[in-house]
Amino acid sequence: MTIEPVTELGSGGALRVPRARVVPLAPAPASYTAAVERYLTGAGIAKSSARIYRISLTTWGWILAGEPAPTGSARRGAKPPVFPVTAIDDPALPEALAELAAARADEMDADTVNRELSIARKAIGWWQRQGWITADPTIGIERRPAPPDRTKALAENQIAALWRLDAALREKTFWKMLYESAARADEVLCLNVEDLHPQDKRGRITAKGGATEWIHWQSGTAQLLPRLIARRTRGPLFLTDRKAPAGTPTLDVCPETGRARLSYRRAEEIFEDNTRLLANPLASPEDIEDLDGWTLHRLRHSALTHDAEDGTSTLMLLARSRHASVCSLERYARPGVDAVARHVAERDPAARRRT
Question: What is the pLDDT of residues 218-243, one digit of tens each?
Fold first, then answer.
């Protein structure tokens, strides 16, 4: 880092504040996409988080290029725009960016918008420290208010209905493992066959933050895993239905089948598609395309909430959730819909009279 000389400003003798100029540690990548990959590897982003970061930064790639980010099915297979990372320093960008970000925020939920904004700012800060860019065009874009959703924990009958769905073996195993282990979806999707210890009903994952930890499952997952694995001994546990396209990283390709690791985006799409009618029980099947289903995170939220309702200790909840702070457990410590319903029913005077 070098500091430019201090110069006088005006006849009053006021001095201009010295401005630090960062000397690039290495030449800037040729494209924004390359800068994203350099950030993901250079900033030490855990593999379990890299997928989410890449998706969010790809979304911001369209916005930074002055284009609305595609949503829904249009996002699948859409190629991000090609532009140099140094274009982020364009002085006209912040105004255009604010309009595009506001339009996207009107279409997406606040949690998603806030997460994507936070990830973009972390990447921009890292690129600034490399000396590739100097500006942060997201300054002035405010986080959206995100009132808590108290209905994220699924009821017991909703979980039971989920298990009754006519879904593929891969989906059944994936959903069971998410619920029984209370693990994050991106952590489970990063599992390889060689990470599993089936006899102990546990697996070794790379957790949020990069730590290597265990997740544990129950009999439901244990019964499905052998059929899913078949005779494979290594490679990604959850695979796509087709051969991996050219250019797929070797670590994300099964060496025995040639198929690629299932992506978070695709897994989320499949789960939402399958749960639209469960999430909207009074809707007509003809309207299914216009309905929203459940998110994968609700399985983790439901598992921890149900644990808390059953009297699981704080220490065990911390171990299950792998949160670093007890404060993070507050969202799960609230009784869920079934517990509240039982509480109200047990105190219903009319019901007591009938008894």
Answer: 999 999 999 999 999 999 999 999 99
C-alpha closest to that of 76 among 58, 63, 57, 101: 58
pLDDT of residue 287: 76
Q: What is the number of other CB atoms lying within 10 angstroms of the CB of residue 312?
A: 15
Amino acid code (one letter) for 333: A
State whether residue 256 is helix, strand or coil.
coil
Helices (H), the chain: 32-42, 47-64, 93-107, 110-130, 156-163, 169-181, 185-189, 219-229, 264-279, 297-309, 314-321, 330-333, 337-346, 349-354
pTM flag (> 0.70) = no
CA 355 to CA 349: how far, in whole Å?
10
pLDDT band at 3 (very low <50, low <70, confident <90, very high): very low
Question: Residue 13 region, left (φ>0) first, then alpha (ψ -120 to 50), else beta?
Answer: left
Cα(66)–Cα(213) distance, integer angstroms: 41
Q: Per the structure block, which two tokens stand in for 256? A: 């025995």
